[in-house]
C-alpha cells in the first residue's frame, strides 16, 4: 500500500487542526517493522490529543492512536516476519511517534507482542490499552494476596474503558465488585458485566476524611484526586488499592492514616512501558479471564472518519466501554 489514509493532528496559530490525510510510506516515522493496520482504538489519552484538551502531542504533525493491531508487511526485527499478526499498546505511540489511526504504521519491533491466540483483531482492540491496564491492576491485587474471599473490590470510573474491563475480569474471577459511576443510566450495563453493587460517584468524589468505615478489601481507581483518597480511607486493614487514572485530577488530598493505621498499600500501574514478558502475561490472562461476550458488549466500532467525533463524545462523558476503530 504505497498510499494510505491517516487521521492527522496539525498545529496551527489558533491551536490545532484534525483531519484525514493521504500519506505515503516515506511519510512514516522510523522503525524496523512495517504494519498494515486493521484496527485501533480511541482511548482517553487519544481523546485528549484529538480534542486538544490535554497536552499529549509531543511532535507535530501527529497521528494519534495509542493502540494498533495488524499484519507485518516487512520487518528487519528478529522476532517478526512478514505475515505475522502483531499488537501494540503504549510506548508513546500517538504522542511522539505516529500511532494507530492510520492504515499503515512503522514502529520499533521491541514495542510489539504477537497477537494472542484466541483473540481476533477486533477483540484485541476492544481490550486495548484500557483492558490491558485493567489486567495489570488485577495482577497487582493478586500479587498482594487480595483474593475473592478477602472482601469486595471497588472499581471507580466503572463505565469507562478501564473500569468496564476491570469489572468484567474481577467478576469472572469470583470477586464481588462494587462499581462506582456518575452515570446512573449505566447501572444495567455494569450489572451485565458482573457488578454486584452500583454506587454513585458522588459518594467518593468529595473531600475525604483521614479514615472512614472499611468497605472493601481493595480497589482499582481510574479517577484519582478526592475519589482515590476516599477509596483509601474506606479500604480494609491490609487491603490494596491500585491507581491507574486521573479523570478527576492528578492530586491526592489524603493523609498517611490508611497506610500507617491500616497498613493499606497503594500501588501504581504504568501500562506504557511494561516489559515484554509482563505484557504477554497480561494478554494470556485476558484470553482466559475475560469472556468474549463481555468484550462485545462493551465495544462500539467506528470508521476512521468518525474518530474525531468519538473523541469529543468520550471527553463529554457520552461513551461507555471501548471504542474500536476499523481501518481496513
Explain what you see.
The protein is an alpha/beta fold and 328 residues long. The chain folds into two domains: 3-115 and 298-326, Alpha-Beta Complex (Quinone Oxidoreductase, Chain A, domain 1); 128-268, NAD(P)-binding Rossmann-like Domain (Rossmann fold, 3-Layer(aba) Sandwich), CATH 3.40.50.720. The chain is built from ten helices and 15 strands. Helix 1 packs across helix 10. It is globular, with a radius of gyration of 20 Å. The mean pLDDT is 94.
Keywords:
328 residues, alpha/beta, Quinone Oxidoreductase, Chain A, domain 1, Rossmann fold, seven-stranded mixed β-sheet, six-stranded parallel β-sheet, 10 helices
Helix content range: 25-40%
Shape: globular
**Cα Rg:** 20 Å
Structural class: alpha/beta
Distance from N terminus to C terminus (CA atoms, Å) equals 12 Å
The CATH class of the largest domain is identified as: Alpha Beta
CATH architecture assignment of the largest domain: Alpha-Beta Complex
Mean pLDDT: 94
SSE string? EEEHEEEEHEHEHEHEHEHEHHEHE
Largest sheet: 7 strands, mixed
Number of domains: 2
Total helical segments: 10
Percent range for β-strand residues: 25-35%
Low-confidence stretches: none
CATH-defined superfamily of the largest domain: Medium-chain alcohol dehydrogenases, catalytic domain
CATH topology-level fold name of the largest domain? Quinone Oxidoreductase, Chain A, domain 1
In quaternary terms, these chains amount to single chain
Number of strands: 15
Amino acid at each position: 500500500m504505497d498510499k494510505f489514509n491517516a487521521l492527522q493532528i496539525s498545529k496551527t496559530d489558533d491551536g490545532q487542526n484534525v483531519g484525514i490525510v493521504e500519506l505515503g510510506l516515506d511519510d512514516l516515522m522510523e522503525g524496523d517493522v512495517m504494519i498494515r493496520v486493521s484496527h485501533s482504538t480511541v482511548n482517553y489519552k487519544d481523546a485528549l490529543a484529538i480534542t486538544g484538551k490535554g497536552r499529549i502531542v509531543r511532535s507535530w504533525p501527529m497521528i494519534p492512536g495509542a493502540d494498533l493491531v495488524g499484519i507485518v508487511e516487512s520487518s528487519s526485527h528478529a522476532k517478526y516476519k512478514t505475515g505475522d499478526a502483531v499488537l501494540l499498546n503504549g510506548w508513546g505511540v500517538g504522542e511522539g511517534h505516529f500511532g494507530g489511526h492510520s492504515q499503515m504504521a512503522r514502529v520499533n519491533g521491541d514495542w510489539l507482542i504477537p497477537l494472542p491466540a484466541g483473540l481476533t483483531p477486533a477483540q484485541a482492540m476492544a481490550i486495548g490499552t484500557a483492558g490491558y491496564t485493567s489486567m495489570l491492576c488485577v495482577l497487582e491485587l493478586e500479587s498482594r494476596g487480595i483474593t475473592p474471599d478477602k472482601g469486595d473490590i471497588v472499581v471507580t470510573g466503572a463505565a469507562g474503558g478501564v473500569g468496564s474491563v476491570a469489572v468484567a475480569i474481577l467478576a469472572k474471577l469470583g470477586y464481588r465488585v462494587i462499581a462506582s459511576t456518575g452515570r446512573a443510566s449505566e447501572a444495567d450495563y455494569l450489572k451485565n458485566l458482573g457488578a454486584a453493587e452500583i454506587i454513585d460517584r458522588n459518594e467518593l468524589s468529595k473531600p475525604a476524611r483521614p479514615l472512614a468505615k472499611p468497605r472493601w478489601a481493595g480497589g482499582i481507581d481510574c479517577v484519582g484526586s478526592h475519589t482515590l483518597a476516599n477509596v483509601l480511607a474506606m479500604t480494609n486493614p491490609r487491603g490494596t488499592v491500585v491507581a491507574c487514572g486521573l479523570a478527576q485530577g492528578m492530586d491526592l488530598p489524603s493523609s498517611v492514616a490508611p497506610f500507617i493505621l491500616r497498613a493499606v498499600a497503594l500501588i501504581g500501574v504504568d501500562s506504557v512501558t511494561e516489559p515484554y514478558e509482563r505484557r504477554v502475561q497480561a494478554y494470556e490472562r485476558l484470553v482466559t479471564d475475560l469472556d468474549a461476550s463481555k468484550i462485545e458488549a462493551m465495544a462500539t466500532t467506528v470508521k476512521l472518519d468518525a474518530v474525531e467525533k468519538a473523541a469529543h463524545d468520550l471527553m463529554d462523558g457520552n461513551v461507555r466501554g471501548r471504542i474500536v476503530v476499523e481501518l481496513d
